[in-house]
């Protein structure tokens, strides 16, 4: 990339920037596609991979397998983030997309519990752990890569493309799974239909790998390397700075609503509507699909708006809006009406889009280039592991323990309160250059 002798970074050519943008968001697309598919076919996976005659127990065990990898995400963030800050974002992103593609695709060829016994769920968990490691490295490297390519004044817009890609990925998973559920019998779905969404990740990953190979390295990292500002121990340096440690704590608290909203609204909700509210599987997936279509446009608008109004206002407004409408909208979901459920879900999705479209660029702006990927990644993934990945498991267990179907609403509103308060405590970063 171009850099002036004075150290002032010269923006990348338009063509290279577009290629790099696609390179940055393609890994996030595959990551969210996998998570979405896993949530959407959780009921089927419970039958395929776990024994027992009680469906609720099987679903609970399936969400245990869903939650375990998220506790490996901070490890992936620490390792891949340190490599990204030492060797460059692009090289690490190539390795991460390879890991994610293989571990996701291989889920589609695993044997069932009936055919392989305990080996089947063990193999599922192992592949999910590999996915967790890769996913841990993706946000810090991928979103930093995008923010560093974007240039001042349009970081919110550019990074929101990755956020929109997550919605499109989930929408693709939703529509594909809904189609399979509609055209296949339950027996066919349990026999082989559930494998198809996972196998689709293989060709998607190959395309993504070629796109990332064509992308240029981040101009911010390139300039830091030329000027001798690349540190040999990014993780140690991140924890040795009080300002960076504070930023990492904010990276845990700020995304609370972002994490809980994603996993409750888009991963847990289809299973909840089917098992607890007795909607058909197709109806649950269609409500989710409508939410995702609305959310795609919402995050793009939020990213652009944040470049004009700032990050803090949108983050706080979105979180507190969920506090206000969370319980009324959830009540609509529990009335047994497809129309009312759709209205409630769409309103909550709009609140979620307001924070999701701004969150990742805000986190990238909290940290300097020399430790950005590791500090961002460790903080964000620690919070996601605790409050996001464990959310379906926690909510399922609390519903069983309390008998109340209102548990997800309480979880959403509570995390929104903390996220909104945290948003009011950060300094506005939208109008400043990235920290060096």
UniProtKB/TrEMBL annotation:
The chain crosses the membrane at residues 21-50, 56-80, 92-110, 116-137, 158-180, 192-211, 249-269, 281-302, 314-333, 339-359, 380-400, 406-426. This is MFS transporter. It comes from Amycolatopsis ultiminotia. The keyword Transcription does not apply. The keyword Transmembrane applies. It is a multi-pass membrane protein. InterPro entries: H+-coupled_symporters (IPR051084), MFS (IPR011701), MFS_dom (IPR020846), MFS_trans_sf (IPR036259), Sugar_transporter_CS (IPR005829). Belongs to the major facilitator superfamily. Metabolite:H+ Symporter (MHS) family (TC 2.A.1.6) family. It holds the Pfam family MFS_1.
